[in-house]
Amino acid sequence: MSNSLMDLEETATHTGPKGVINDWRRFKLESMDQENLPPAKRELLRQMSSPSRSRDDTRANLNRKMSVQEYELLKEEDEGCLKKYRKRCMQEMHDKLSFGPKFEGVHDLDSGEAFLEVIEKEHHSTVVVVHIYKIGVKGCEELNNCLDCLATEYPTVKFCRIDAVASGAAERFSDEFLPTLLVYKAGELLGNFLACTQHLNEEFFATDVEAFLNSYGLLPEKELPGMDDEEENDIE
Fold first, then answer.
1. How far is 175 from 179, CA to CA, in rounded Å?
2. Is residue 190 within a helix (H) or strand (E), and if so which, with residue range?
3. What is the pTM of this model?
4. Could you tell me the residue range of the domain that residue 121 belongs to?
5. Side-chain half-sphere CA neighbours of 131 within 13 A
6. Which residue of 1, 53, 59, 151 shows the fewest CB atoms closer than 10 Å?
7. Residue 130 lies inside a defined structural domain of this protein
8. With a cut of 70, which residues of the chain have pLDDT below it?
9. CA–CA distance, 93 with 87 (Å, rounded to integer)
């Protein structure tokens, strides 16, 4: 059997009821504190995960029925291990479905050339949100603060801001049209919201801006919280 077919077969063992059980068994064995196990259980663990076995033997071992001893050994682990396993599976699935780069914070664009570059050269799957603002115009500072928050919630979205005066676009974007939100993907303009705060309440927050963009289907699904976050919550 070729290596590619063997890899495909190994991948297939992670799907279906039997595959899930086998994957859980492997994860459980790897996460157990073997040093503190009684000698009898440590020997059973060694037999279950012996590194000296051949590849074929290992596959056969994973696909066989679980013995009573194995079951008793594995079920003693606390719920924390199950939570970690479930979280890992969800993260792996999410990673497989996620494409494109990730970003940190809001990017400041200092020129019209930088504005064009971020639109034309960004990854084709990346949503680019550009805030055109002007210092002193009502709503601009508040919207900048909201985008700072959303940038942490949506790392696959590239949030940018550009000063209308510094960019040389002050004539095209007079104060009455600010703040403006432009949304692009693959170089195509998906959303053009002039004086966008008119669609929000007098006092608005990041969740309001998020809901507004989501009403047009412009934001992807949120990133899953990391494993470390869940562990910290469990401790609390």
1. 8
2. strand 188-193
3. 0.57
4. 107-216
5. 28
6. 1
7. yes
8. 1-38, 40-82, 91-99, 170, 223-236
9. 10
